[in-house]
Amino acid sequence: xxxxxxxxxxxxxxxxxxxxxxxxxxxxxxxxxxxxxxxxxxxxxxxxxxxxxxxxxxxxxxxxxxxxxxxxxxxxxxxxxxxxxxxxxxxxxxxxxxxxxxxxxxxxxxxxxxxxxxxxxxxxxxxxxxxxxxxxxxxxxxxxxxxxxxxxxxxxxxxxxxxxxxxxxxxxxxxxxxxxxxxxxxxxxxxxxxxxxxxxxxxxxxxxxxxxxxxxxxxxxxxxxxxxxxxxxxxxxxxxxxxxxxxxxxxxxxxxxxxxxxxxxxx
Length: 267
Prior knowledge:
Distance between the termini: 39 Å
Number of helices: 9
CATH class of the largest domain: Alpha Beta
Number of domains: 2
Mean pLDDT: 96
Oligomer: single chain
Helix content: 25-40%
Strand order of the largest sheet: 3-2-1-4-5-11-10
CATH architecture of the largest domain: 3-Layer(aba) Sandwich
Order of helices and strands: HHHEHEHHEEHEHEEEEHEE
Shape: globular
Structural class: alpha/beta
Radius of gyration: 19 Å
Number of strands: 11
């Protein structure tokens, strides 16, 4: 059996959703509650802040607007290209606070430390194996100041949703794709492997009566259960200080969509 990291479908899903920065920005343009949460946390901790998986800079720009220095790392050049394009439209005072760089969060070393490291919007769900979690948390530890915090969020797994029929396409609202400005029918299908705990999501796009317009975007996410997440952090030297179920800092509960974690290195 192939390990998750060797599965070509998982590898494709790790990259596919991040090959078009303009489309990514368009899809998540109204997602703001997590941005406010991370900006508030950054103000509480003070800068500078290291953001792992900075993407198009959706969170990082808000921190910079609040006067907080941010170093944003991402593996996908397409996301960083869009991040730089968006940053170029900001005032000089914001541009001076934000630096983007390409790097793998399991291996990057910047030779500096931060009071806060963040990984917003399910970034750690792309850590498909235990060894990748270990490497990522070593990266965090190598960059945290004494007393510093790691703050991140991942989705809360729901077994009923993970058991959806993989052959069924769940139709959603039509969407305008930034690649050509045209409206597409949009759907999603889901396939979950309970052994690897990896869910493969296939996003489908097509136009009615235009079969040649059909294309897909894959996304692979490693589901992490709350007790498992606590163990991963504990055995890599971290203690959970706060755990929320929403970006309004309400407690984690059975109806929560996300697990939002504030952790510190032990000792």
